[in-house]
Amino acid sequence: MSQRSPIGSLVLACGLFIAPIGGSQAAPGVYPQRAVRIVVPSAPGGGYDFLARVMAEKLPGELGQAVVVENRPGSGTLLGTQIVAAAAADGYTLLVGGLANLAFNPGLYAKPGYDPITDFVSIGLVGSFSYTLVARKDLPQSTIQEVISAARAQPGKLTMANAGIGSGQQVAAALFEHYAGIELLNVQYKGAQPAYTDLLAGRVDLFFDNTTTTKPFIEAQRTKALMSSGANRDPLLPGIPNGVEAGMNGLVLESWIGLFAPAHTPEPVIATLRQALGHALTDPAVRARFETNGWRLLSLTPEETGRYVRTEAERWTRFLREAGIRGE
Asked: For the whole model, what pTM was predicted?
């Protein structure tokens, strides 16, 4: 798997977004003949929504039809994903798919209502991002080694915020406990915002959040960065060690996001979509929008993407079940 240049999140405007139609209209009988819908299985804002809206601006020029973004949150990312799994396999309903809905959900829920491998076909993965463990600014410990030592000395005393059941933040925290051999007191929040409210006020000790979101708090010295979750050091925080450097070889968590279509979508339609996405991602302005928001752009063949998604689904399903993390 080759990679180019790191995934953040950007809170964008809410509601339905219809990009202007660009390019020439398709010839009769040639896909697409009408607007293409991209279903985001989460609320507006965040990495899933950001990808969809960038593509809704760029893809009309490639496809010659409007692209509509439809946010369908519910039961985490289950509802929106189920909608696409059940949609007609004609290329007019696409899914923003990623680590949460295609790899975490099968491990979180006994019956998620879809199979991430057999119910979808990839158009392409766009990018990935890491998470960073931060501490309240006045925590006595200032390095990851000091935090681990303190947690081992007093199990359950240090508190770890997470953004909800099945969130990347919760899984990152569980990975940290597992590979560090420690026990933390986990504090559940409904989203990252309330977690930050308590972290910045000093009411909770630690939080594992996506690197782009937490970076401004680190730069303003409102939190202390301890460790990132990427396979390599994060370019946004080059002075912060990753889990491997901190002695936790299995602690690697990178969220990935891309576009998917229902299984059995005709191959010519998939080929058109893949070509359109590929062309969109060669635009320097589009690449800059992703990279400045913390994305590490990915470049994988369809075969590599299929293997990667399958491996991730198997890995995280196994880990979540072994860790006893279940969806609500």
From this structure: 0.80
